[in-house]
Model the fold of this input.
Amino acid sequence: MLNAISIRMTKELKDIVLVIGLGSPIMCDDAVGLKIAEEIENLKIPGIETRQEAIGGLEILPVVRGYRYAIIVDCIQTGGVEPGTVMIFDLDDFDSTVVPASAHDFNLATAFSIGKDLEPETMPEMVKYVAVEAADIQTLSETMTPAVEAAVPSAVNAVLYLAEEFRSS
Done:
C-alpha cells in the first residue's frame, strides 16, 4: 500500500514554474544565470520559484524533480553570435549532445535524458533553456563583461515570457 501511495504522489507535479539560474558568481560571465534568477526572484511573481545553483550534470535532477515546468538559465559559448545575445532553446535542441560519459562528465541534456529514463513521472513535462552568449567564462571576476551585463533585462523578459507560455498551456 505504501508503494502505491508514494507512486501516486510522485506523479502529481507542482504547477509552479521553476527557474534555475546556473553559474559561478566568481567566473565573469558565468554568473549571468545566477543574476537573471536573482532578478526574477526579486519580482516575487506568484507561481514562479527560483533557485541559484552552481551545479551541473546529474546534480540538476533532484532540483527539478517534482516540477511540471523548468526554465534553465545559463551562459553559453557558441562562437556564432555576439556576446550578450539571448537565445531560447528546447531540451530537444541538445539531443545531439546526449552521449555516454562518466558520471562526472554528464552535460545537462544527458542528465535530463537519464532522469526521464529512470523516473519519468518525476521529471518536468516542459523544459526550456534561456542562454546568454558569454564573452569570458575563464577570468576570475565578480563582474560580468558589459555586453553580458546589458543582456540581463532581455533575458529576464525571455524567462517571464516562457513562464507565461507554460502557465497558459
The chain has one domain: 2-168. The domain at 2-168 is CATH 3.40.50.1450 (Rossmann fold). Residues 1-10 have pLDDT under 50 and may be disordered.
